[in-house]
């Protein structure tokens, strides 16, 4: 079982050289003209050509061998419970498996599968604070899990949000999974959360499991959460006219998930592009769920949106990295000086008809992952879950 991954115990300097393609995660400039990254003590300090950056004193040198380096992928919608175990499917090591799918950061949309999850205000606050504290300390495989997302109930008052924020809670679980299902109550509580720096997400579409219910466009628009959770349904999506109404009626995040309606995801993508709002689109899996866990779920969404949504692959990767980082106010997700040194090193899968990784993704293939790095530390090498890559990076000095 993947427990707390080791952290650097002293000064560290990582050099990644011989990069074939560097994806930035930023829509405004998705490809960078550089072949080397330097990171010190877990933060990016230089990006450029090998001859122009200071590589002296490196404690770890990675030869990318001409592969692609991108920011570590971010899953904007997961449902963790305790450690690297999910009771939803009674499965262990699911977070570690996601790491092998390139995911280095996860955002909780509520610890809703906790057996005996308390619905009373004292209990739900206690569970949120516990989850936030536990995953702040525990890093399964090194993955950063932002957890502690309470499912709000009608009995809550403003001081409850103030108390949770003071204790470190920064997220709300999906509005609509608890007793709050109407627009006016949701809007009031979302306002309290925002006042104290807590970000909110709403369940969108039909019920996903017994106990949840329909949340339609009127509730979504009135609630005005920071993120429209799984706008393509989890699994059942709203009609196209309601999805368009949400896209046009607010300027919040539009989250597309793997465990949703794929046709509706493509419709949302087209709508956002027509509006010039591609920066609002972020990606998640909405797992663990009834359909299981999907270690390659974010990669599959990138491939789906690129191949069937006709979105250039370098932009599709931005939806899974920089867009989410900016929306969620994270210090990762972008290849920029000062950001966390979280990377995924990939190449086109062996025997893909694409001439390179971008063309292969646009043809619908998944890339092969050769390495993941979190906080400047190599966490995995050749993925046990993706197809084998044509080329693989290697640690040449440590």
What's the short version?
The chain is built from eleven helices and 20 strands.
Describe the structure.
The protein has about 400 residues and is an alpha/beta fold. It has 2 domains: about 120 residues, Urease, subunit C, domain 1 (Roll), CATH 2.30.40.10; about 220 residues, Metal-dependent hydrolases (TIM Barrel), CATH 3.20.20. The strands form 5 sheets. It has a 6-stranded mixed sheet, with helices on one face. The chain is globular.
Number of domains: 2
Number of strands: 20
**What CATH architecture of the largest domain do you see?**
Alpha-Beta Barrel
At the first level of CATH, what is the class of the largest domain? Alpha Beta
**Overall pLDDT score:** 96
Which value, in Å, is the CA radius of gyration? 20 Å
CATH homologous group name of the largest domain: Metal-dependent hydrolases
Question: Class by helix and strand content?
Answer: alpha/beta
Placed side by side, the strands forming the largest sheet appear as 3-2-7-17-18-19
Share of β-strand residues: 15-25%
List the helices and strands and how they pair.
Elements: E1 13-17, E2 21-23, E3 31-32, E4 36-40, E5 43-48, E6 60-63, E7 68-71, E8 73-78, E9 85-86, E10 91-92, H1 94-99, E11 103-108, H2 121-137, E12 144-146, H3 158-166, H4 183-195, E13 201-202, H5 217-223, E14 227-228, H6 240-249, E15 253-257, H7 262-274, E16 281-284, H8 297-307, H9 313-319, H10 322-328, E17 343-347, H11 357-362, E18 368-374, E19 377-380, E20 394-397
Parallel strand pairs: 1-6, 2-7, 8-11, 11-12, 13-14, 14-15, 15-16
Antiparallel strand pairs: 1-4, 2-3, 4-5, 6-20, 7-17, 9-10, 17-18, 18-19
Pfam families: Amidohydro_1
GO molecular function, one term: hydrolase activity, acting on carbon-nitrogen (but not peptide) bonds
Protein name: Enamidase
